[in-house]
Amino acid sequence: MNITKTDLAWAIEQGYLSAEQAEQLWQAWTEHKGLLAMEEERENSDSPPLRFDFANVAFYFGALIVIVAMVFLGTIVWDALGGFGLFTVAVVYAVGLTLVGQWLYFQQKLPVPGGLLITIAVWMTPLAIYGLQRGFGLISLDDPSVYRNLPTWLVSGRFPLAMGTIIASLLALRFIHFPFLTFPLAFCLWFLSIDIPPLIYGETVSFTTAAHLTLGFGIVCLAIAYGVDLRWRRSRGDYSFWLYLFGLISFWFSLLATGQDTEWYRLLFCLINLGLMALSILLKRRLFMVFGVIGVFGYISYLAFQVFADSLLFPFALSALGLAIIAVGVLYQKHYRVVEAYFDNLLPPQWRNFLPRER
């Protein structure tokens, strides 16, 4: 039987429930239905949450070794293979890994090793593109970063490699649901943020301009991650983690790079990091807490060094700061559910629909 708020309003009018009891009952039902839905999705999910047991660690460690081997192949023996030879090896690897990965993923019902093999196949894309560029003489043999016969908008050495890998990642995600495929996607988007300034301004781009553009990329990447977080339940796989990570890296370090040597900017940086800590609670993302805590700690340490410089009180102040941070961490770990519920209740009910759904 489906009970609506209209039914509860009728019960209040008849005197069966008070308004406060009805609100508490409605919230309890809502939470219970949410947990049931999460359990059902988890049981039906073809991409179960990552567990750090021996099998999964072995799967990911083996995948890392294969990727490292391909990196050495592209940097050490490319002279012996030649451009088209390197392209052929990359394509053969990619096709073989994709076929075996599909077999494991769909037929053997082993999504983790199957998804990892397909992810490695995606990582063959930059190697194949690099081989083609070298084979057609688009790259100088003396300096692989110098492109000779490409239009202006393709001057950057990493641009074609990154774009090809992004397309390959999106195609793979179209056919299998494996969150780790967002890692090459996010990684190449981050590299594109480094390439955007020279593509726009050429070699005359200043460090500050490049930092501002990277800051803008970080904000865009975080917005995309947030949209992905809203779209897919995390119980079906965390598709937004890597986008959040590389978005935060671009955003946070660009704030440092564009910073001014003034007290007001340091205070603003501290406030932004406090905002990241608040977002961590609202979005239930510990990544934001990590970056926020580092930023706030850096600002407090700066104040401590300024206020207590050359003072006997400095070691005691620094010790007190460290102990206070540990105490806050302990309290948050013990009561984080209460803290998250408190922040959720501060928001109007209609705004809660804009929060990502819990794992």
Short description:
The chain is mostly helical. It has helices spanning 5-13, 19-44, 54-76, 78-107, 111-135, 159-175, 182-201, 207-231, 241-257, 263-283, 286-307, 314-346. Helix 4 (78-107) packs antiparallel against helix 5.
Annotate the secondary structure layout.
Layout lengths: L4 H9 L5 H26 L9 H23 L1 H30 L3 H25 L23 H17 L6 H20 L5 H25 L9 H17 L5 H21 L2 H22 L6 H33 L13
Helix pairs in contact: 3-4, 3-5, 4-5, 5-6, 6-7, 7-8, 7-9, 8-9, 10-11, 11-12
Descriptive overview:
The chain has 359 residues and is mostly helical. Helix 3 runs antiparallel to helix 4 and helix 7 packs antiparallel against helix 8. The chain is globular, with a radius of gyration of 26 Å. About 8% of the residues have low confidence.
**What are the segments in which pLDDT stays under 50 over at least 5 consecutive residues?**
38-48, 141-156
Number of strands: 0
The major beta sheet can be summarized as:
none
Quickly count the helices. 12
The averaged pLDDT comes out at 76
How far apart are the first and last residues' alpha carbons, in Å?
26 Å
Radius of gyration over all CA atoms, rounded: 26 Å
Principal-axes geometry comes out as globular
- Tell me the helix content: over 70%
> Which structural class fits the helix and strand makeup?
mainly alpha
Strand portion = under 5%
What tags apply to this protein structure?
359 residues; mainly alpha; 75% helix; 0% strand
